[in-house]
Write a structure and sequence with these properties.
The chain contains seven helices and eleven strands. It has 283 residues and is of the alpha+beta class. Strand 2 and strand 3 form a beta hairpin. Helix 1 runs parallel beside helix 6, helix 2 packs across helix 4 and helix 5 packs across helix 6. The chain is globular.
């Protein structure tokens, strides 16, 4: 499998697009940042599957030789100070935990979480939009202070893990509906990182497969039964056999279920929760 070059509004978006295109996870590829973007220009990256990269024996004492990431105190300090300063400026004092700081799979990465703060819901925002903006600003400031691109992963009171669980549950329910109706199920628009969670959740499923359709803000995942499953169980169920959808769970996850068509206008890609995560059948 050859390398791919992708672009996006940010380096993270470009990386997520490359991983989705290759259908691989980040630890399975070598990443090269071609352009960090800015001034109206998109970020560009090149992703090459590790199977295509000539492997060299690890150097003695290499930081990741045993799967461990060497701690980068400079990166950790920069991240903590920047986030604490931002919280103070916005009037949302909170404690900052540095979960990881160093190179992961060759990429400088800072993972941190805001805990035990006040009004954390306001910092998360509707479907994580404020959290995503906060992470983006933090990454810009960290990059400026250190002088090189660093991936920053920011969470607030476990929101991202809850969102990931919701997306996995949505993927499995969509797979169940695709099998029940022997037809394609269309999920709401999502940002690249969320689409990839859906793809990975169903990657090993025996009866359904996934792909993405649409452009830009309207790109979404399609979950459909495999040809073998349809051949074994028959064609699509008739409309009369399909009970009306009851709507999805409330809260930030969003994404109630609806029937037919593409529904309302695209929700945009401003936040971690980009597109609600619900789905509809395509007939």
């Amino acid at each position: 499998m050859a390398s791919v070059e992708t672009s996006g509004p940010t380096v993270d978006d470009a990386i997520d697009a490359a991983l989705e295109k290759l259908d691989l996870d980040e630890d399975q590829v070598e990443l090269e940042i071609l352009s960090e973007g800015g001034d109206g220009q998109p970020a560009r990256v090149r992703a090459t599957p590790r199977s295509e990269v000539a492997s060299a024996p690890p150097a003695t004492g290499a930081p990741e030789a045993n799967g461990e990431v060497e701690w980068d105190e400079t990166l950790a300090t920069a991240g903590r100070e920047i986030v604490e300063d931002l919280l103070d400026y916005m009037g949302f004092p909170g404690d900052v935990d540095i979960l990881a700081a160093g190179k992961e799979n060759g990429t400088p990465t800072l993972t941190l979480a805001i805990v035990d703060g006040e009004s954390m819901g306001a910092l998360i925002g509707r479907r994580g939009e404020t959290l995503q903006a906060f992470q983006f600003i933090t990454q810009l400031l960290v990059n400026r202070r250190l002088g090189h691109w660093t991936r920053v992963l920011l969470d607030i009171e476990g929101y991202r893990s809850r969102r990931e669980r919701y997306l996995k549950d949505t993927a499995l329910r969509a797979a169940e509906k695709a099998m029940r109706y022997r037809d394609s199920i269309e999920l709401d628009p999502m940002i690249p990182s969320e689409r990839r969670i859906v793809h990975l959740t169903l990657a090993e499923h025996e009866s359904v497969k996934t792909h993405s359709e649409g452009e830009g803000d309207n790109r979404r995942v399609i979950v459909e039964p495999t040809p073998e499953y349809v051949a074994q169980h028959g064609g699509p169920a008739e409309r009369a056999e399909r009970p009306p959808d009851r709507g999805g769970p409330g809260g930030r996850g969003g994404g109630g279920f609806s029937r037919g068509g593409r529904g309302g206008p695209p929700r945009g890609r401003g936040g971690f929760g980009g597109g609600g995560g619900g789905f509809r059948d395509r007939r």
